[in-house]
Amino acid sequence: MIALDRKRAYAIKRETVDLILEVSKESFPNEFAGILRCEKGVITEIMLLPGTISGSRSALLRLHMLPIDYTVAGTVHSHPGESDHPSRGDLQLFGKFGYVHIITKVPYGRNCWKAWDLDGNPYHLEVLGEESTSS
Ligand SMILES: [Zn+2]
Known about the structure:
Elements: E1 11-13, H1 14-27, E2 33-39, E3 42-48, H2 56-61, E4 72-78, H3 88-94, E5 100-104, E6 113-116, E7 126-128
Parallel strand pairs: 1-3, 1-7, 4-5
Antiparallel strand pairs: 2-3, 2-4, 5-6
Bound molecules: zinc ion.
């Protein structure tokens, strides 16, 4: 069993979102998968799992091997398509691990991602450091 951060994530850093989208783009047309680390309620870091480029499924299953004190909020993975909704398989994994799950979609622009809870309901994450004027 993986210990989750007591303080649930309410926000994510803009630069973390940008990094996620960048890695999604680089991995395309393959999926990438990683885990979200949370510090004081803010998702600040992603950890890519080795060997994830060839497919997210096996990568996500390896999460069970993480150290138990890891401050893990949930998972992130990319979809090489235009849907950022969780698939049936995604939901099965969500239910086993963490409480917030981010999915990115093509073309991996700034708004091409969504966060979900383990039941597949939208999970609101505030983006910290959002610039209001730049495109
Ligand atoms: Zn998926």
